[in-house]
Amino acid sequence: INDLNVILLFLRANISELISFSWLSVLCVLKDMTTEKHNIDTVVDFMTLLAGLEPSKPKHLTHRIGDENP
After folding, report:
1. 49 neighbors 38 (Cβ within 8 angstroms)
2. Considering just the CA atoms, what is the radius of gyration of the chain in Å?
3. Where are the domains of the chain?
4. Distance (Å) of CA 52 to CA 45, 48, 55
5. Which residues are within 8 A (CB) of 38 and not within 5 positions of it... i.e. 6 or more apart?
6. 1, 21, 56, 64: least buried by Cβ within 10 Å?
7. For each of the chain's 70 residues, which pLDDT tens digit applies?
8. What is d(CA 53, CA 8) in angstroms, rounded to the nearest whole number?
């Protein structure tokens, strides 16, 4: 068995973890890109954004965020 075969065996055995890691990577990139425009901190916020809706926060959370950044 050469090195390429070992790598292929490893990838076949762990493909579900690789797919999960890819999704996690995509979510991390999305979070980094959207935190400036939207206050995204939960999976529900991501799903709302992906559905094309505007994420909204309760007013008490919005005020608290606004107070921290003068």
Report:
1. yes
2. 19
3. 3-68
4. 11, 7, 9
5. 45, 49, 54, 55
6. 1
7. 677 778 777 877 877 776 777 776 776 676 666 555 556 566 666 666 666 666 566 555 544 555 555 5
8. 41
The pTM (predicted TM-score) of the whole model is 0.32
Read off the tokens for 2.
């050469």
The token duo for 26 is 């995509």
The DSSP line for the chain is --HHHHHHHHHHHTHHHHHHHHHHHHHHHHHHHHTTTS---SHHHHHHHHTTPPP---HHHHHHHHHH--
